[in-house]
């Protein structure tokens, strides 16, 4: 009887151990698969980072990400594995490509800030915009190079500028939702609406008969994409002998910003208004969660 009881206990023990191993193995498999690249590419790992560290105001708990960087690092590994250039079939639509470059820009900026944290200002990160430290689809990119890549689409859709951030008060706030091809337009609209309420990013002053437009100096990096002339536009002028830019006039910027502002303001940014647009001083202080 005692022998039978011992055998029964041993059997139960090994069954329990087997089940435990199965559960742990299944969980390990789930975690492993979750960190692998999906086909087509999706940004659920980046969404985990945003859920973990970003509040509804677009403020970031940098210390929290610094202490627990696993999901951010896994996302960077996914970005390093493929991009729209290296694996175009995984990005079937233009919006899928655009979403990749937006999220990649913001993830790389976060990683570079985390590397130097604790800091108060992005100015403390050496070569934040120009250092090509991380791979995207097997090729090193800087933040500036990503913005140049997006410049191909910015002229057609200027709202894209507001999707990018350097996590500073002078750049647009990070959205709490990861960009995906299907949600691109909706999230762009949210980013613009948030910027219109943020006097450090965009100010539209309702003057009479004309308004005034003040933009964060962050947007000056897009002037080449927005105001460059094509050869076709310049072939009958002397502009071919000059740098390929039109003057950055108030009217020029208003052409792109006017559709984004409230209808009561838009008429005051018309073609008869103003000789120039002003830019706000750069504010490099980080948008941090306050405790």
Report on the structure:
The chain is mostly helical and 291 residues long. The protein has one domain (35-280). The protein has helices at residues 2-35, 44-53, 62-67, 70-81, 94-116, 143-154, 184-196, 223-227, 231-234, 250-257, and strands at 134-136, 139-141, 202-205, 212-216, 278-280. The strands form two sheets. The chain has a three-stranded mixed β-sheet with strand order 3-4-5, with helices on one face. A two-stranded antiparallel ribbon has the order 1-2. β3 and β4 form a beta hairpin. α4 crosses α5 (94-116). The chain is globular, with a radius of gyration of 25 Å. The protein starts with a helix and ends in an 11-residue tail after the last strand. The model is unreliable at 6-32 and 230-246 (pLDDT under 50).
List keywords for this structure.
single chain; 291 residues; mainly alpha; three-stranded mixed β-sheet; two-stranded antiparallel ribbon; 5 strands; 6% strand; globular
Task: Annotate the secondary structure layout.
Blueprint: H1 2-35, H2 44-53, H3 62-67, H4 70-81, H5 94-116, E1 134-136, E2 139-141, H6 143-154, H7 184-196, E3 202-205, E4 212-216, H8 223-227, H9 231-234, H10 250-257, E5 278-280
Helix pairs in contact: 2-4, 4-5, 5-6
């Amino acid at each position: 009887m005692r022998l039978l009881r011992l055998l029964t206990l041993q059997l139960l023990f090994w069954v329990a151990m087997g089940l435990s191993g199965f559960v742990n193995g299944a969980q390990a498999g789930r975690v492993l698969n979750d960190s692998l690249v999906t086909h087509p590419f999706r940004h659920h790992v980046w969404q985990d980072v945003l859920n973990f560290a970003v509040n509804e105001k677009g403020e970031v708990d940098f210390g929290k990400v610094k202490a627990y960087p696993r999901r951010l690092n896994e996302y960077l590994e996914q970005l390093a594995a493929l991009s729209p250039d290296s694996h175009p079939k995984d990005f079937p639509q233009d919006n899928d490509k655009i979403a990749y470059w937006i999220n990649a820009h913001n993830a790389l900026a976060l990683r570079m800030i985390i590397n130097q944290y604790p800091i108060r200002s992005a100015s403390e990160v050496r070569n934040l915009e120009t250092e090509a430290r991380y791979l995207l689809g097997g090729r090193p990119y800087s933040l500036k190079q990503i913005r140049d890549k997006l410049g191909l689409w910015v002229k057609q859709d200027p709202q894209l500028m507001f999707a990018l951030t350097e996590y500073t008060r002078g750049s647009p706030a990070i959205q709490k939702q990861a960009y995906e091809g299907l949600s691109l337009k909706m999230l762009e609209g949210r980013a613009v609406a948030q910027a219109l309420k943020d006097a450090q990013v965009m100010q539209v002053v309702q003057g009479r008969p004309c308004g005034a437009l003040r933009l964060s100096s962050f947007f000056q990096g897009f002037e080449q994409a927005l105001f460059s002339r094509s050869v076709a536009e310049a072939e009958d002028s002397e502009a071919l002998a000059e740098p390929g830019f039109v003057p950055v006039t108030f009217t020029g910027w208003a052409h792109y910003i006017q559709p984004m502002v409230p209808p009561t303001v838009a008429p005051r940014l018309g073609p008869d208004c103003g000789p120039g647009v002003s830019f706000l001083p750069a504010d490099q202080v980080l948008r941090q969660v306050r405790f």
